[in-house]
Amino acid sequence: MPLAMWLKAIILSAACVLSGRRLFHYFQLESYQFRGYFRTIRRMRRLSFRPGLVLCVGQCAACLLELSLGTSWTSLVPGSLLLLSLAMENHREAGLEKAKKPFSVTARIRRLYAVVFLVLACLMVLLQLAVSCASSVLSASLLTVLWVFLPSLLPCLLAIGAMAEHPLEAVIQKMYLRDARRILHSRTDLIRIGVTGSYGKTSVKFILGTLLSERYQVLVSPASFNTPMGLTKVIRNQLLPAHQVFVAEMGARHVGDIAELCRLVRPEMGVLVSVGPQHLDTFGTLDRIRETKYELIRAIPENGHCFFFDDGDICRQLYDQTRKPKSLSSLSPGRGDIWAESIHSGPQGSTFDLCTKDEKVTCSTRLLGRHNIQNLVLAASVCLCLGMTLKQIARGIQRVQCVEHRLQLMNMPGGITMIDDAFNSNPRGASAALQVLREFGKRRIIVTPGMVELGDKEEEMNYRFGVEMADCADVAILVGPRHTEPIRRGLLEKGFPQAQIHTVASLQEASDILRTLCRKGDTVLLENDLPDNYSET
Length: 537
Known about the structure:
By secondary structure, the protein is α/β, with parallel strands linked by helices.
């Protein structure tokens, strides 16, 4: 096989891999799930296919240069340099984008880059061989056209490479998971607690970690580390002999995800925070979400303990059907094993009485919103089961810090108050955030792109969000004309002044409006910030 043929295949493969940075990022944002990746490609068609189309133009130019300079392999140099220059520009352009969750070049991504390159190189070589062995001019011409326009299929080419890499990744993951299980299972003294829910699980996890630290040495999985490989990394790198309690957040986007996490952690206590229409686009139905979240409770041993909040709905139903040792927390006096009463909440925090059937203690917290009191009471229920006193729990509640981007109160220059609730908005969380905003005086401004991953309920939920928003805000800045149209409709149908609705294409445009609009005493709620794979720009 001529050297020139090898060079052409390798250079085009390298150009495709370099140009695919944005696609690798999308794949990472979708947790390396092919179904989510292809949904993102459909949603972000322009950005996904543009780098490959640029390479196609470069391929055409390279072919023309090769024809004009002759068939010597040295004639490939100008076209190759052009292709690599275009690829580097594609790579640079993707890297300059302000990503809300930056592209992380992990060991897995490096392996993926290498395997995708090898698969593409093999594909290109086979195509070149087919061109050289074609039995007719027409066949050779058709194969050459396919060669030239192959980069236009870049999103699919990356997926083919990722599929080829999948068996290798499965072997590596099994090795890491086996090691994490060995570490955990050797710690028979370690109290293992699983926390799951459609929303609120990260907040409850951090609250629980703070409260338990009044008595125990606690390891809490950081940030949103709630996948098998995320928890594996925590166990292998952070679990120390001194730790007495391990609190593991357990996330799910598909049926069976929680069961897989339970096989790793083997929790002896399970906390079910909430069940609702989050990730409906991947689950399909609320019943599947309910069954998946209950996988945690099924995994708790008969001598373990299960914790629920009395939401008067699904969580209460699941509590009633559970036959293992269990506890119920509530915001209604006398309902449950532990509850909150005499609740007073305001712009700077809340006070309440934490009660059991035998005693009560007054607690104060800087957390905003009634739903955060629910989270505190649920975490307190676990602490009681582990032998802590109400006084210890109250001290812990006073120390609890707001989780970043979850109703985080910030004082901005110019006397403006910012409530940052940008992380992963959902129907219940959005409603709670609006009620917090309502407690603030003067002019109240909301900036939001709405909610996603709600399946066929998404438009309806965003419309309801707009209806509720009309009574809680004075100015609405909607980010993304297409996605926020149901919110706009809900606002207008509720009588919200049209002049006070500002629809923009990006968060940067929203920031520009805020700079000209805000004045001293205003309160701004930043409600949700969609990930990069949902951007409309």
